[in-house]
Amino acid sequence: MKRGIKFAAVIFILCFMAVGCGKADKDNVTGNLDEQQNTDNKKDSQTDDLEEKEQVVYVYNWGEYIDTEVIKLFEKETGIKVVYNEFEQNEDMYPIIKTGAVKYDVVCPSDYMIQKMIKEDMLAELNYDNIPNHSNIDEIYLKSAQEFDPDNKYSVPYCWGTVGILYNKTMVEEPVDSWGILFDEKYAGDILMIDSVRDAFMIALTYLGYDQNSTVEAQLEEAKELLKSQYNLVQAYVIDQVRDKMISEDAALGVIYSGEAIYTKRENENLEYVVPKEGSNVWIDGWVIPKNAENKENAEKWINFMCREDIALKNFEYITYSTPNKAARELIEDEDIKNSEVAFPSEEVLKRCNTFHYLGEEWDEIYMNKWNEAKTQ
Amino acid sequence: MRNKETKRRQKNALLAAPCSLWMIAFIIIPLLMIVYYGLTKREDGSITLENLKLIADPINRRALWLSLKLSIISTIVCVLLAYPLGLMLRGLKIKSNSFIVLVFMLPMWMNFLLRTLAWLNILENNGILNTILKILHLPTLHIINTPTAIILGMVYNFLPFMILPIYNTLEKIDENVINAARDLGANGKQTFFKIIFPLSIPGVISGITMVFVPSLTTFVISNILGGSKVLLIGNVIEQQFQKLNNWNSGSGLSLVLMVFILLSMAFVGKDENTGRGAATW
Questions:
Q1: Partners of A59 in beta bridges
Q2: pTM of the model
Q3: Is B245 at the interface with chain A, CB within 8 A?
Q4: Does the residue A36 lie in any domain?
Q5: CA distance B209 to chain A (A)
Q6: Under an 8 A CB cutoff, do A236 and B13 touch?
Q7: What separation, in Å, do the N-terminal and C-terminal C-alpha atoms of chain A show?
Q8: Which of A177, A195, A336, A357 has the fewest beta carbons closer than 10 A?
Q9: Is B17 on the interface with A (CB under 8 A)?
Q10: pLDDT category, B1, cuts 50, 70, 90?
Q11: Contacts of A369 in chain B (CB under 8 A)
């Protein structure tokens, strides 16, 4: 009987170990498991032996959002080991930072998420003395960033872009300059709508002349009805698939992020990208340092490295999302890209664009419910 | 004697350890967590039934209803496809037999997502199927982004789970039993309905379970082949967890879904008993 209890205890303990391992692995999306475990071990030994600690930085970034070469360069130049993990959306990243399940040193969330994290006191102030390359970032973007990070105290812009309409010149005859075309019955079955709550409502609200961060019930209701009327015109609600579907000419019109537009235009020259006249959303992803970061100085070195013009250029060429780095932009050799309205919209375009604000959990839910209603006939 | 008995027990316990560990870590604990989250409030962790009541919301109710409908249809289609195939395989010689089973298993060596994306390419407006139809000057089909496409995806992805158990039980029916039936004057139809079918019911039931449950809970197939235009209960739950970060209401809805699964299992399980009874009789 006693043995039975012992046995149960062993199972119980092993079980928790298994759960623990499971947790650690889950975040290790890039699959460099050995590396992670190595550094984990090293991290443990750090506390025992402070003299011989190896420099590490834990980086948490969007998937496919960096030229991997850059990570190697950073390790080579600074001698700091990089543990690099990826997340798919802001909402995946948030609980991990919030609970401190893994203590990341530097993370790259979007505007509204940065705002939420600042509000919840999750971020550390940056020491700009350690980030001299910060001066490479164009003033314009720092100003935009102030919408969610009032004094630029917590974040340094990494990539940015707009949301707009991608259309096929051979399939759409009239000039496209308004969100209205997405609600035009003429294009029934040829429209790809974006399957993201906030972006979808941004389109409807902007088209109706309201604020894209609206928290007025009546406006949201009106936007919902508009989106609902669109249901039968929409071929599909997509995010990533819009790229392939537009390239293969499965649809005439699609809602897309500007970074993807450059890629699709390269693949199919009939495609054209436009930011509608009513205005749109401009988003900025920026580097931030969580409050619980253990290697803050290394994190600042990382941010500084990312702001260096040649590195920013390398990243831009790899991921094709616009860089806020004006020095890097100067270095772009391809004149078409350098002066591209898609990659670097004019100030006039940016003036009509706003960023998303964090509206609180309650409003997140209201938006989501209305979005589901719009998609159910 | 007693000693031997306890030793045997210990050995058994040790042998079962990996499996029980697995079950505790990945089935029991997560299940308890779902129950905990499902019955507590997000704000303060107090006990509530609010999360379960979410199912009464018109949109969620409709999503559940549609999910039930689509998964029942795809389960029926799977049975209708798999059973004749199982019978056919039973009649064949062993060698060609395993080859055909292999052919049906082959797609499963590929990733589930890839297979579903392949269907997207086939069914799209300018996809493979429509391109062929256009070349032949036939009218094109618009299946993509409709419930039909989702059923197709479910049947394609889960059919092997129906074929295997049905084939296995049919395969194991003793030839002598059938011969005896024929000997005693039963015709082909009678043999099938009174002997073969009742004996194969356990296989059909495990097949139904293995097709119905994943069909009812899927959200990937409806996202990819339904173009997010068709909202299933799986999508609603996924949204709660991923987009709203609301584990409590997501778990609550999962609990309701579990009740439906248990109900369907109980319903099918009842048949199993009568089936066995008939078989032994």
A1: A84, A106
A2: 0.80
A3: yes
A4: no
A5: 28
A6: no
A7: 61
A8: A336
A9: yes
A10: low
A11: 59
Tell me if A236 and B236 make a contact (CB, 8 A cut-off): no
Do A298 and A278 have their domain in common? Answer: no
Domain count, chain B: 2
Residue A184, min C-alpha distance to chain B (Å):
18
Between CA B235 and CA B217 the distance in angstroms is: 8
DSSP state of B126: T
Residues B214 and B240 in one domain: yes
The CA distance from B213 to the nearest CA of chain A, in Å, is 24
A215 and A364 inside one domain: yes
Residue B44 belongs to some domain of the structure:
no
Instruction: State whether B26 and B102 are in the same domain.
Output: no
Interface of B with A in 110-149 (CB under 8 A): 120, 124-127, 144-145
Give contacts of B20 with chain A, Cβ < 8 Å. 11
Q: Which domain holds residue A330?
A: 55-160+283-337
Contact B239 A368 (CB under 8 A): yes
Q: Å from B163 to nearest chain A CA?
A: 32
Residues 93-112 of B with CB under 8 A from A: none
Closest partner residue to A91 (CB to CB) among B13, B145, B245 is B245
Whether residue B59 lies within 8 A of chain A, CB to CB, comes out as yes
Q: Cα separation of A305 and A78, whole Å?
A: 10
Q: Are residues B55 and B33 in the same domain?
A: no
What contacts A5, CB < 8 A, 6 or more positions away? none
CATH number (domain holding residue A70): 3.40.190.10
Domain extent, residue B31, equals 1-38
Judge residue A313's burial from the number of C-beta atoms within 10 Å of its C-beta, 0-12 exposed, 13-18 middle, 19 or more buried.
Answer: buried
Chain A touched by B80 (CB under 8 Å): no
Residue B45 lies in a domain: no
Residue B43 is assigned to a structural domain of this protein: no
A194 in the same domain as A70:
no
Of B10, B229, B243, the CB nearest to A236: B229
Domain count, chain A: 2
Bridge partners of A161?
Answer: A283
Q: What is the ipTM of this complex?
A: 0.80
The encoded tokens of residue B36 equal: 């905990």
Those residues with Cβ within 8 angstroms of residue A69's Cβ, 6 or more apart along the chain or in another chain: A314, A318
Find the CB nearest B145 among A19, A92, A235.
A235
Question: How far is Cα A257 from Cα B238, in angstroms, rounded to an integer?
Answer: 24
Question: Could you tell me which chain B residue has the CA closest to the CA of A9?
Answer: B21
Distance CA B105, CA B100 (A): 9
A171 vs B contacts (CB less than 8 Å): none
Task: Let me know whether B115 and B228 are in one domain.
Answer: yes
Per-residue pLDDT of chain A (377 residues; tens, 9 = 90+): 344 444 444 444 444 444 444 444 434 444 444 444 444 444 444 444 444 568 999 999 998 899 999 999 999 999 999 999 998 778 778 888 988 888 999 999 999 999 999 999 999 999 999 999 999 999 988 988 998 999 999 999 999 999 999 999 999 989 999 999 999 999 999 999 999 899 999 999 999 999 999 999 999 999 999 999 999 999 999 888 899 899 999 999 999 999 889 889 989 999 999 999 999 999 999 999 999 999 999 999 999 999 999 999 999 988 889 999 999 999 998 888 888 888 888 888 888 998 899 998 899 899 999 999 999 87
B239 touches chain A (CB under 8 A): yes
State whether residue B236 sits within 8 Å of chain A by CB.
yes
Is residue A194 a contact partner of residue A239, using CB atoms and an 8 Å limit? yes
Same domain, residue pair A274 and A355: yes
Beta strand spans in A264-316 (E): 271-274, 280-288
Asked if B107 and B226 sit in the same domain, the reply is: yes
Pairing type for strands A253-257 and A271-274 reads: unpaired
